[in-house]
Amino acid sequence: MNVIIVGASGYSGAELARLVASHPKLILAGIFVSEQSLDQGKALSDLYPQYTGLIDLPLQPLNSSALQFIAQHADYVCLCTEHKVSVDLAPQFLEMGKRVFDLSGGFRLSSDEDYQRYYGFSHSQPELLAQAAYGLAEWNAHAIAKAQLVAVAGCYPTAALNALKPLVNAGLVSDFPIIINAVSGVSGAGRKANIATGFCEVSLKAYGLFNHRHSPEIARYLNHDVLFTPHLGNFPRGILETIYVHLKEGVSSEQVTDAYQCLAQEPLIRLLGDKIPSINGVVNQAFVDIGWQQQGNMLIVMSAIDNLLKGAAGQALQCMNIAMGLPAHFTLVGGQHD
Ligand SMILES: NC(=O)C1=CN([C@@H]2O[C@H](COP(=O)(O)OP(=O)(O)OC[C@H]3O[C@@H](n4cnc5c(N)ncnc54)[C@H](OP(=O)(O)O)[C@@H]3O)[C@@H](O)[C@H]2O)C=CC1
Ligand SMILES: CC(=O)N[C@@H](CCC(=O)OP(=O)(O)O)C(=O)O
């Protein structure tokens, strides 16, 4: 399959370019940035020297000749662009008959009201929201396999949903909201210049209290209320979530362990039992590490991922594998697809 990546100079786009270029069944057919981009014409390896000799393709502006090229040559279009940009770009690629994998949040929620409230813009393609399959690879493979538009799951939701769906689906959780405290590394905020997320400016600090856009995303796909508070941490990459779950009266530790067995055969999920996951355990890898400890009715679940390699790019690659009828998971050797 020929894959093109829009937004390939950004953190998730560059990571995806590396995964696609080393995939045995995918060809990286083109990498694109905006028409105004200061990076157009540069090789991806000029921005990311570790790609020298692996990806020397030039970043091209997404202009009319680029669109013609994509119409003729691409099978899969990956949008590694900001939410509003993805919403505006997706329809033309869908009309060309391409399969679109959108890494933004532009198609993850269900209504224009949600977008106005949580994203701060009115959705210009609300009819596409019902068509998009939610790209949470371990849980929604059937829908992803058939969909023309995949809304790849968010980074914080990927860590939260993999850790919580087994418990909620098994009926073990009381009606209280689940409390999720999450910390993300700075790459979660993207590569564009922004003083608040400049590395020397960052202090460990909460943000988005009560209104972060991942709250409705997690609640929607978990089917349970959550109180989600993200924090920005002063490290480059990775997400760690500490999650407080009020279990129903009398739920035993055996029931909790049994509930997680639904993930036991998933190659990219590592169930750590009572061991405590860490950022170091997952950085530069595509795993979700999940650990838990229980006292009475309270369960503390911990979930760690690399925001770019299990969130964003890695999850998009899993969705493309599913679309091709291949096993979803992949193995990394030295940062490349094995
Ligand atoms: N970073 C992360 O951990 C995660 C990110 N995501 C999502 O993935 C998407 C990309 O995030 P991230 O990689 O961090 O973002 P970056 O800011 O690092 O990269 C954005 C990319 O989009 C390009 N771009 C901007 N405007 C346009 C346009 N109009 N047309 C084409 N290309 C454009 C930029 O290049 P230029 O401006 O030079 O044109 C750049 O290549 C976002 O929606 C984000 O929410 C999802 C999960 C995790
Ligand atoms: C640290 C940081 O700023 N993180 C981003 C979330 C990462 C991301 O890009 O969000 P999606 O998964 O929805 O695309 C934020 O809170 O907005």
Key attributes of the depicted protein:
binds N-acetyl-L-glutamyl 5-phosphate, binds NADPH dihydro-nicotinamide-adenine-dinucleotide phosphate, alpha/beta, Rossmann fold, seven-stranded mixed β-sheet, 11 helices, globular
Structure description:
- It comes from Pseudoalteromonas ulvae.
- Catalyzes the NADPH-dependent reduction of N-acetyl-5-glutamyl phosphate to yield N-acetyl-L-glutamate 5-semialdehyde.
- Keywords: Amino-acid biosynthesis, Arginine biosynthesis, Cytoplasm, NADP, Oxidoreductase.
- The chain is α/β, with parallel strands linked by helices.
- It has two domains: 2-131, Rossmann fold; 155-307, Dihydrodipicolinate Reductase, domain 2 (2-Layer Sandwich).
- The protein is built from eleven helices and 16 strands.
- The chain has helices at residues 11-21, 44-47, 64-73, 83-95, 112-119, 126-129, 141-146, 155-169, 214-222, 253-260, 312-323, and strands at residues 2-6, 27-33, 59-61, 76-79, 99-102, 133-135, 149-152, 178-184, 205-206, 226-232, 239-246, 269-273, 288-295, 298-305, 332-333, 336-337.
- The strands form three sheets. Strands 3-2-1-4-5-7-6 form a seven-stranded parallel beta sheet, with helices on both faces. Strands 9-10-8-11-14-13-12 form a seven-stranded mixed beta sheet, with helices on one face. A two-stranded antiparallel ribbon has the order 15-16.
- Strand 1, helix 1 and strand 2 form a beta-alpha-beta unit.
- It starts with a strand and ends with a strand.
- N-acetyl-L-glutamyl 5-phosphate binds next to strand 10.
